[in-house]
Request: fold
Amino acid sequence: MLHEVMQHSLNENLKVQEWRERERRIRQQKEELWHKSAELRQQSTERLISIMERQADSIQALVAMQAEHYCTRPPCSPCLKTLSHFTANPLAPTSGFLPPPAASNTCSFTTYP
Reply:
């Protein structure tokens, strides 16, 4: 009977040892996944920041181009004549929209580094 008790104890100890080993591997895998996930989040954050920086640069260039366009554009006297023509002569109910005002096609763009 003592032999059976000893054998049972040995079996139980082996089960506990196997369980501890499985738990250790699971913890290690979770830790590795957490580190990998943290690295991927960091990379994603860096990519997003890079994209946002490029967008900010593009917006600044567009604003500068727009400011240059408005500063170099001559007064729009033909537009005022066209607008006064349409407000003095209301449109017929069958026509849906006003045509665009006449504008010169002399736009100049400057590229900034």
Q: What stands out?
A: The first helix runs from residue 2 to 72. The helical segments are 2-72, 77-88. Residues 79 and 101 are 6 Å apart (CA to CA).
